[in-house]
Amino acid sequence: MPHPSRTAQEIATQPGDWRTAAALAATGPAGLPRRGERVAVVGCGTSWFVAQAYAALRESGGHGETDAFAASEFPRARRYDRVLAITRSGTTTEVLRLLEGTDLPTTAVTACTDQPVAAAAGHLVDLGFADERSVVQTRFATTVLALLRAHLEQEEALPAGVRTVAEAAADAESAVAWQVPDELVALEQISFLGAGWTNGLAQEAGLKMREAALAWTEAYPAMEYRHGPVSITAPGRAAWMLGELPAGLAAEVAAVGGRLVADSGPGGLDPLADLVRVHRLAVALAAHRGLDPDAPRNLTRSIVLG
């Protein structure tokens, strides 16, 4: 049996990483958003999609107005009580430029506290235990969201119907053990769908499949699926819902001959744990196509601009 890729090994640590993050949240790390603060959450790539998920969770839970931006698109004329930056490497150029160029209070969540972000941010939250050697992010990103989600639990601001991080970690155990079906590996195309906080997860799912396996994937809010994206669904292609499936969507997918994957939401997996299954599928598809998920095409671990 071939040795698991580094990416696959890191994917498998996520349940434990989330529990560690929840324990960290319970200590009240300095710099995390306080109830009522108007917060901008920024990042690049995967970190931007995590920012989107957290922003929707925080605002819908009543903790405070929260916007998410790609760091390069931050509206500098707006006033916020805090900028929360997510950067695994601590070296991402757009994030550093934003932190260094704003007079707003700033906090950075990073895996590398010995990098330039340490001098650029007002507060640091250290997630070094979830750092990765892989280029393609998996465990750091989900652990950031676990930390921020657990912090909302501590603040009694978790939206109704969203499970605790402990429950999500238990679901992630089964996701790590999940055997990827051959019929999913054989799919030509997948449209990932989300709603509310899982929109960010859907975007991240699509990105992960593209990065690791060069797959044809797209991502949309679930209710937007009917407004165009359904046109590409057909036999051999799928719609994958992260979270609760909207009424009528299953029939829409079936009518055009597509496959529906809808195993998260009420009565199913926590959507964050379902993202772990997407990680597993991305690695399996890469292997099927003769690709190395540890060496994705055209990518590096951190984007540092000249």
TrEMBL record:
Top-level taxon: Bacteria
Record the organism: Kitasatospora phosalacinea
Family annotation (InterPro entries): GlmS/AgaS_SIS, GlmS/FrlB_SIS, SIS_dom_sf
Q: What is its EC number?
A: 3.5.-.-
Q: Please state what the protein is called.
A: SIS domain-containing protein
A GO MF term: hydrolase activity
Give the keywords, sorted. Hydrolase
Under which main EC class is this enzyme filed? Answer: hydrolase
The record's annotation in Gene3D superfamilies points to: Glucose-6-phosphate isomerase like protein, domain 1 (3.40.50.10490)
